[in-house]
Design a protein that fits this description.
Length: about 170
């Protein structure tokens, strides 16, 4: 029995191996014939290490150590230095609080006595001294006694207090 001739000019006869879809492949020698050796890509000599390979890694590590060291020193200095950073901020806050938190016996000047009064501690011999703190009455909405000339009430969430002053 013979194979029928192909219907199309580039078609393989029936029963013959066909080329798979995709890129065309090189023709292979039939079985039993020696194959020709495939050309090999040219071989290069031994590879040199890239210039600066280990040195580049050492530089990168050194930069990271310096960066973290600098940030660590700044944080340490900010938190421990007696002349700057956190200490300066705390000293400023405590000085501000001390200027506006009178104790019994302190003389004060009062800014905006009719609206939102703000007390500032001053020297009792200074001409700025207006009042002298005589008593601090604990509790919200407490009134000063008749012996006091002026009172300031402070309210907090759960409690409050009243500062009672006499004229200087």
């Amino acid at each position: 029995m013979s194979t029928p001739p192909p219907q199309y000019p580039n078609q393989q006869p029936y029963g013959q191996p066909q080329q798979p879809y995709g890129y065309p492949q090189q023709p292979q020698a039939p079985y039993g014939y020696p194959q020709q050796p495939q050309p090999q890509p040219p071989q290069r000599g031994p590879q040199r290490p890239q210039p600066g390979g280990p040195l580049r890694v050492a530089k990168a590590i050194a930069m990271v150590v310096v960066l973290f060291g600098g940030v660590g020193y700044y944080v340490w200095d900010y938190n421990t230095s007696p002349t700057g950073g956190k200490a300066r901020a705390e000293a400023s806050a405590s000085a501000s609080a001390a200027a506006h938190d009178p104790e019994i016996g302190d003389c004060v000047k009062v800014k905006d006595p009719k609206g939102e009064p703000v007390t500032t501690v001053v020297d009792c011999g200074s001409p700025e001294a207006e009042y002298k703190l005589g008593e601090m009455v604990p509790g919200a909405n407490m009134d000063c006694g008749s012996e006091y000339d002026y009172g300031i009430q402070y309210h907090r969430r759960t409690s409050g207090y009243t500062l009672c002053f006499t004229k200087v």
